[in-house]
Automatic annotation (TrEMBL):
Topology in the lipid bilayer: Multi-pass membrane protein
Recorded superkingdom: Bacteria
PANTHER family linked: K(+)_H(+) ANTIPORTER NHAP2 (PTHR32507:SF7), NA(+)/H(+) ANTIPORTER 1 (PTHR32507)
Keywords from the named record: Antiport, Cell membrane, Ion transport, Membrane, Transmembrane, Transmembrane helix, Transport
Protein name from the UniProt record: Cell volume regulation protein A
Main location: membrane
Amino acid sequence: METNTVILFSALFLIGGVMMAKFSSRLGVPALVLFIIVGMLFGSDGFGFIYFDNASLTQSLGILALVLILFDGGLQTEWRRTKAVLPISLSLATVGVLITAGIFGVAAKLFLDVTWNEALLVGAIVGSTDAAAVFAVMKGKNIKRKLQSTLEAESGSNDPMAMFLTLTLLQLAIGEESFGASLFLSFFWQMGAGLLIGILFGFAASWAMKSIDLGSNGLYPVFSIGIALFTYSMTDLVNASGLLAVYAAALVLGNTKSLPYGQTIFRFHDGIAWMMQILMFIVLGLLVFPSELFSTWIVLKGLALSFILIFIARPVAVLISSIPFKFTMKEKAFLSWAGLRGAVPIVLATFPLLEGLENSQLFFNLVFFIVMTSALFQGTTIPYIAKRLGLTGPEVHIPSHSLELVSSTTVNAEMIPYTITSSSKLIGEELSDISFPDKVLVSAIIRQDELIAPSGDTKIKVNDVLYILVENQKRSELEKVLGIRKTIGG
């Protein structure tokens, strides 16, 4: 394709993707489904505009996209909420993935004419939930924070387990590896070193952003992208889990107090994550051939295996993984249902394709079909299931306005947003009656998408978003008044 044609299609995909993301929220359909459908329509089996069968390029783009999506997910994750559910999240991300892969592998052996190693390989590929799908579906929903934090932390940390199992079983299938103690040591190294490197890089990035005046607010988001890519590549260089390191680094950075241009960085990465989702899922749609994907054989086998995954493998994995933790049966049922599959299984399914493994095309088509089934069947019903189980919280209000103090590391103040929740002790209080520290000013209040100029007799209401100007040295005092707990980066 000519350069201008590539640019034109890229523009159409991005503009169309943004429109579909808005449209999907109204329909209740995960945006990834619409992106994939667009890719299939533009591909050789659709309108025939683009012929694309480059699995290697798809894999590289997929990993790049996952790095940036996970980084955005880590930035948006609140440590004070996540630390309470971290044990069960890690249990689901390790033991849960292993159990899911094992049960699905047994089913694949029964339904498909493949070896045990190949069956378990397919199980490993679909074993993990997907961060891109989970973050997108959960965003803005009024699902109980404990459950939402559990699912987000699980999806952000279970990719290393799935990738380790996939690559190990693939090496066994092609005869380059054998079972032994080295496999277990390799797993603990990947997880442990990946987590440690990510935390160290996160604190280093936080220190650098606070200490170095880059001179322009536009350079801070660019610097953060460099941190994400550098963290992944350096961790992968020592054969540790780069994806886990990226998520851990972003978690530290996103919970850093007084991060220069924090809101600018967060909004920038939110946009980058959406762009990566659009391009990644469209490319994945281009790679698959609908005539093969929707053949009678693939549909029948795919539906049977999807049923096993959704109604047997995932629930059993959740039940066993959550035994030591205090979760009700309704909460466990919801965690089972919300185990969405997405880009990660499809990207992992490209590894057998590149190795030329027998039945690799069959595995890719089956995994793709299962992901589509999961997104359509589970993704569209998550809010309904949560409501039926009584696991919803107060309505989430996302303000359409945002304010940020244009400052740098040389300015000793910042503008912070604070949302008044139903549990806030400030509800009903007038601003003049709140004991704010000296030199703290409530500059604006967003109420039901309207801007209010505050005065002393302005009463605080639920879902108000207060934009508060505060000197850096007064922030700790302000957080005590607001009831904010200390974060890991503070």
